[in-house]
Amino acid sequence: MTELRAVGIGKRFAGVRALDDVTLDFPGGAVTALMGENGAGKSTLIKIINGDYRPDGGQVVLDGAPLALHAPADARRAGIRVIPQEPEIVPHVSVAENVYIGALPRKAGRAFDRAGLRARVREDLRRLGFERVLDPDTLGSRLTPAQRQLVEILRALTTDAKVIAFDEPTSSLSENEVEALFALIRRLREQGLAVVYVSHRMQEIFRIADRIAVLRDGGLVGVRDVDRTDEAEIVRMMVGRDLSDMFAREHSATDEVVLEVDAVTTDDVRDVGLTVRAGEVVALAGLVGAGRSELAGAIVGDLPIRSGQVRVAGRPVRLRRPRDAVRAGMGYAPEERKAQALLMERSVRDNISLVVLDRLRRLRFVRRAEERRLTREYVDRLNVRTPDIEHEVRKLSGGNQQKVVLARWLARRPKVLILDEPTRGIDVGAKAEIYHLIDDLARAGVAILVISSELPEVLGLADRVVVMQNGRVTGELDRSQATEEAILELAMAEDLSTTVQEGSA
Amino acid sequence: SSGKESTSTNTSKKVSGKISIAYLQKQGDQQYFIDEAQGAQAKAKQLGDVDVKVVNLGNDTSKAVSETQAAIAQKTTGVIIVPPDPAVGPQIVQTVAAAKVALLSSDDQICKTGTDPSKCPKDQLVPRVGFSGTQMGTQVGQRAGEEFKKAGWKAADTAIIAAWKQDVTVCTDRVVAAQSAFEQAAGTKVRVVKVGTDNTPPDAQSKTSAAVSGNRSVKHWVVWGCNDENVSGAVNALQNAGYKAADIDGVGLGAYLACKDWGSGKQTGMKAALFINGYDVGGLAVQTMVDYLRGGKAMPQEAFAPTKMVDPTNWRQSGVKCT
Amino acid sequence: MTRTTTSREPVDAEPKEGVPRRILTAIGPQNISLVAALIVVVAIFTFLNSGYLTWSNVQVIGEAATVAGLLAVVQTVVIICGAMDISVGSQAGVASVISAMAFMSTGHDPFLGIAAAIGVGIVAGLLNGLVIVYGRVNPVIATLATLAAYKGVAQLISGGRAQGFVLGDDLFIFIARGRIAGLPVQVCILLVVALAIHLMLKYTDVGRNIYAIGGNDTAARLAGININKYLIAVYALAGIIAALAGIILTARTGSGQPTSGSEGLELQSITAAALGGAALKGGKGGVAGTLLAVLLLGALNNGLNVVGVNTFWQNVAQGALLVIAVIIQQRRTGERAVGLPT
Amino acid sequence: MTRTTTSREPVDAEPKEGVPRRILTAIGPQNISLVAALIVVVAIFTFLNSGYLTWSNVQVIGEAATVAGLLAVVQTVVIICGAMDISVGSQAGVASVISAMAFMSTGHDPFLGIAAAIGVGIVAGLLNGLVIVYGRVNPVIATLATLAAYKGVAQLISGGRAQGFVLGDDLFIFIARGRIAGLPVQVCILLVVALAIHLMLKYTDVGRNIYAIGGNDTAARLAGININKYLIAVYALAGIIAALAGIILTARTGSGQPTSGSEGLELQSITAAALGGAALKGGKGGVAGTLLAVLLLGALNNGLNVVGVNTFWQNVAQGALLVIAVIIQQRRTGERAVGLPT
Ligand SMILES: Nc1ncnc2c1ncn2[C@@H]1O[C@H](COP(=O)(O)OP(=O)(O)OP(=O)(O)O)[C@@H](O)[C@H]1O
Ligand SMILES: Nc1ncnc2c1ncn2[C@@H]1O[C@H](COP(=O)(O)OP(=O)(O)OP(=O)(O)O)[C@@H](O)[C@H]1O
Ligand SMILES: [Mg+2]
Ligand SMILES: [Mg+2]
């Protein structure tokens, strides 16, 4: 049976030691979960296994033979497949080609078998139960984040692999897709593959993994069998201390309505109404493609509203572009940090101060000292792990990048804060910190609308839950009424008659 | 087809009715050629029932071929061409001959059977109207030599700036001719500093400035080039480098920029310029073509428009137009 | 270079699929407007001068557009990779000179002349690719540099003068003036090359990989595509096609031209590729669109001369018409006017 | 420096802040290699000809580089936005002609001449911006089109001829040959413009927003930046600076030049910006690097002429040196050689 071993792997980047002498095996026929805080080195380890980064020391050994990994092509040839943390999609070609990129089916000579490809992808989609969420002919540029992640997952199926590593595959997926993915992973495990699985979602790990390896500060803390450990121990291994009161939120809503969305209709959203009061946290729940991000985009003036109105503090806002929303006191952290929020090649400072420059300037000159002070303050508050505030954002780990996005909007202190998947890719410890932050903000009177696909998060945070499906609001649940079952029922209101979960058998 | 259809030479059959002429010019956005185009069109108007279409070929020999083909496709009766490079001559001659359209070259010479007109048997040259490059260069060099003698400079502390676009062969011809004429007139050899430019004043100016930096020991400068742009740019550079007008012996070619210096009444290193009148050449070319087409009058092997050396004292009388 | 693919372009509704719509999609909406623009241009010039829409003039348009067309087609491939080759014109110049000189020095053997030119084209193209990939020089800078360097090489080996004389040779005459089934040989060459490249791009895995590299090079790299090999090969291809263009140039003008005839071709080829729908960021574009754009620009150019518009107005008209054509094309997509268009 | 509360120390070489280190960071590693290249170039030419490193020749280099330098500086701003302005040269041509013609027709008032030129520059720049943002025309295509159109306009209003004569006027003479504290006036103009743009880019919120737009336009839009306004303003700025370059051209040559002197400036300005570290996909670059690149190219150009290298070799040498400079620069970053470099 296959076995992948990482032996004595070390890797440092200028100023940061990402991995330090990590020795770890990934046996075949088992799912090894890799856990650790943001920036612990999980993605770096996976990139090394994939031949994307070259380690400073150590070796990757497959079935007893050391591998010479100079490029991802080498890893691929050896039978290693990696689903990276950030989906990499080719924009102007179809989903089908995206899935089989680098391994397109051929006919005679080098002719490319377009029909064969489409048939194969359709079959893959059907097998996994994704045919309703993903069309093989859509162009890559038109996919939603969830769909992009599904494409990445489908790529795992294209080759005969011995090892498959998933780097946070579910961070923007909702229950349905997660189920299908798990069915797939179980099948892979039965076939004897070594599966590496990275996630910050604790429940998932305990459902799918056989072993849990924990990294901290680039070093291996330990490996546990799932049967012989529990969440508390893993968290302790990850952060070095106990975490309690994770979701303890107190009710702080007032009666003052700050955000009113009144019968808003856009191209994908129909007749949506909701309100958020000062000090209240409203969660917007739903499945992939329910139209939540679309609604958020419309509320902040980025997508055209065909009819309906948005009011902030009672005053109607004329939304022609996001600037109008920002001016009216709204803040919006979009779901895709890399594509929609971050200036990857600029510093942490530049990224955080972006929306407060108008407050920091004097005669249009930015007050640099004040800017640095403000940036440091938020870097400290959110515990962003960066060597210093002039560090380029692209060099941060995924979770820390997300914190930078949040810091940006917190620094602006808006009246309304719209957070689309705010904890996507964030570790348990940091998650708790962010929940505390959201709680603090609410207490300070900010009206908060959170879009989240993670049900525990929705339940833990929200004063009220608004559920959407297919571009419409299908129900609203008070905190006391909200349970996972109730939310899912509303989220799938129209689908209930049809069975969805073929793939999980 | 193989493209090798027999190409019988011009049959002169008289054309009655409307005559349409295509005037294909290289560098059609340069002042000299703009004048030439206007001269051609004015002459056509004067003759009546003649239509002249002017096309700018830039420096593109390939375009010369396609515009010739286009003119033929338009049933043009005569083609007058200023070839961007004489090497394209044979191709033009064969293209035109196949369609039995009359051909006249203007300014630069072309040969029917070879790429180099200077090595062409006399009877194989296409009839031409214009100025001889060698002759122009000779006149420039001669005048420069005379000025050199008059100033009484010594060859040892004098140098010549020759500024031209080095991949334009007709430019090279002029500059080479100027040098031998200068040596004749001056009776001595003077060192030549070759400055490669793109034939525009700013480029001539900066390139010359640099060349001067490399030759600070020189006390007096003689300047010539492919056209007025080069000479005027180079003279400007010398003046900016601190040389007095009296230490510069610049002889322009065209006179359309030199006249600006003279018009201002200031002292200038631009001592003289060969006035070549594009307007006259354009008119003469059209006249020659029409005479041939209408009256069957054979085109003369070479017809030269008059050139005149002008200087600050006599340029106005000579008909130099200054914008 | 990792490219962030913007997730949600502010685009309006997905077009509904119907049969007419299907046909439209097959030609591509981008190309439709080029066809429309072409029809308008032809209509206007035909109205102004009856000599415009004659078979002989159409041939002239085709022949005049061949050299630029070849370069535009291969430039399209380079641009799809997300790169650019600004040196194509200079490469054609070197090849032109070499073809004529090799022809002369081998006792008038046209095949040796052509082979030598193509060989030199491959070398020049490979050098571009190697400098870019292994020298890590930005493609624009690198090929701007080789634009100058190759031009210098052409001038040096030729002494700046046109070289040789090839119109005594049957093959060169055939290329210059021959017809195959009534079509000029040059145009046939262009069509064959375009078709071959079109097939490669659309119907082989090589072509699909090229789109992937240009669309998202990280994705391509992670998928195990040997990006470096592809990029170098594409530059070599550009060198070969540029050499072909140089050979045609030699045949057209009768001699090897170091610079005349090949200057300015870089901008023309990029213009045609971009007008034909290639995105300069890479990943998008096609031969059909480029050819249509070449045809449109050629028809425009020729028409302005046929009608006898003065050079200065031609510049204004060309610029204005180009902008108008693209504006119309873009208006049809109904994209929202925010930020830079692609 | 911020320390996170968690246990881990950021291991290893956080560069120790020392004084030399500080200076190094201030110049930037990219610029360091330009400085090194400059030193090498100067050393070589000084060795070959003692007239090279003289104050008068340094002034010559500065003056020769001014026009291209101005355009390169503003091109840097355009490129940082992720766009490009290929029409700068033509805009300078129009401005040059207009300045001379307005000067002549207002009875030799230099200020009116200059004002008219700048006014025309603004209009031309705004037109570019509007066509790009609201016409949704790709910046390269749009400015390629206006490159032709503005050139045609310059030729039309001037009839293709050099216009007027301004060297009878004190102000124009001052611009052409004056010195301020020993420095040529043209160079002073360039330095003032460069400094102003540098301050704007680095120290104002406007500049920061420009970097944001080029770095990630979706992020900039969602952060409430009015991208359209910025883009149009940047093109207008390009128009103004191009007009300034045109005025200097007029003063240098003594008359308004429709095309001669302004052709090829687009490529020069893009080359300098890119060599100076501006990324063509936007979001990166700076005035200091661009100025260094302008100086390097100017010193190279001048040196080749001082030493008296023939034009053909100059082309080869320029191309080769450009490539070598960038390769050295890139090697220092130690980036892995995969795919297209940025
Ligand atoms: N290209 C890079 N340049 C510099 N530093 C880097 C680079 N990539 C990663 N790092 C650093 O290496 C460390 C480990 O990062 P890595 O991405 O492996 O974390 P991770 O465990 O995957 O975190 P997350 O859960 O947030 O994804 C981080 O401190 C990060 O800043
Ligand atoms: N750029 C786009 N082009 C076309 N359709 C889009 C685009 N973006 C979103 N959509 C469509 O809009 C609908 C709503 O998507 P949205 O992203 O708002 O859903 P969501 O509830 O946020 O789910 P997700 O978890 O996928 O983000 C989906 O049907 C999706 O296909
Ligand atoms: Mg990670
Ligand atoms: Mg969403």
UniProtKB/TrEMBL annotation, chain A:
Domain ABC transporter: 4-242, 252-495
GO molecular function terms attached to this record: ATP binding
Domain of life, per lineage: Bacteria
Sorted UniProt keywords: ATP-binding, Nucleotide-binding, Repeat, Transport
CDD domains in the cross-refs: ABC_Carb_Monos_I, ABC_Carb_Monos_II
PROSITE patterns: ABC_TRANSPORTER_1, ABC_TRANSPORTER_2
Entry annotated with the keyword ATP-binding: yes
Pfam families: ABC_tran
Membrane-crossing residue ranges in chain numbering: none
Name of the protein in its database record: Sugar ABC transporter ATP-binding protein
Automatic annotation (TrEMBL), chains C, D:
InterPro entries found in the cross-reference section: ABC_transp_permease
Keywords tagged on the record: Cell membrane, Membrane, Transmembrane, Transmembrane helix
Record field: transmembrane: 31-48, 60-81, 88-105, 111-134, 180-201, 230-251, 272-300
Cellular compartment(s): Cell membrane
Membrane topology: Multi-pass membrane protein
First-listed, main subcellular location of the protein, grouped into a coarse class: membrane
Listed name of the protein: ABC transporter permease
Protein source organism: Actinoallomurus vinaceus
Taxonomic path: Bacteria, Bacillati, Actinomycetota, Actinomycetes, Streptosporangiales
